């Protein structure tokens, strides 16, 4: 990727670093009270919207895919890591809780339900599978109808989703309906996003970004509290996600001009899958099993720095990012690496392969 287009990977890098800090803050006792966790809260409106927008941005090409190509060139690389690592992460975390406080290990239904409904740390893979299917299906719509689809999701989701979720148990619909418009617009408006990113630091673009941010802030802090209707929570959060996108893009473009920081975040952004899957496993395997459940509690009153929240938040962030990055290198290891980056199967749908299979089938019938 050339320098001009470094910002998408940097945006994903910012997002994944924020996610790691969030998860560490929830795992370490009083971790959410540390200055690092409090500073990370400023990324909350940007973190997931920019991740899904960039994911849509890179998925625009599937609008030209046949269904077989969608499965073999896109969904295959999401399904394999999701189906392998989700049950393992659920089991590993349950094992830590059993080890630490004697919590019973869950039954088989626990794993089935959470894998099927995206109820795990790896819900973003579950979401991307569904979002890619929706994006691919939208290729059969006229271009203007695609924009109507996005608008319909934004407007109708607050009314439909709560009812459907209640009667079907599809609890993920509320969260997904917030981010699927962002994902779709990332694909549909890819040329416009590139155009904006090229001018993101110009005076006019900065004014637009500021106005968009202030509008999002007013919706979140003033308009929404006046409504007092839970049905509009989805609408408020979706609008907030969309309105924060200019700021997220501008931040990524600005960071791309900072030599050392940009290189670090770009490297992180190019290894998102390994870090996202691996960081929680590494933190559980180290801090979870060996520190969290010891007799000496982690608290602000601890006399030793080794048992204060800030020390372990910093340590777990380093463990999560470093261990997660190394975890991603498993993709280069035969067999086990296939669970992160499975071997390509797109040749199965190529015209040459199809012809060979047809000829083989014909010869088989002749014998």
From TrEMBL:
Membrane disposition: Multi-pass membrane protein
GO terms under biological process: enterobacterial common antigen biosynthetic process
The keyword Metal-binding belongs to this UniProt entry's keyword annotation: no
Main location: membrane
The keyword Transmembrane helix belongs to this UniProt entry's keyword annotation: yes
Cellular component terms (Gene Ontology): plasma membrane
Acyltransferase domain sequence ranges: 6-326
Transmembrane segments: 12-32, 44-63, 75-92, 112-137, 144-164, 176-197, 243-261, 273-291, 311-328
Compartments in which it is found: Cell membrane
InterPro entries: Acyl_transf_3_dom
Family of this protein: Belongs to the acyltransferase 3 family.
Full protein name: Acyltransferase
Lineage: Bacteria, Bacillati, Actinomycetota, Actinomycetes, Mycobacteriales
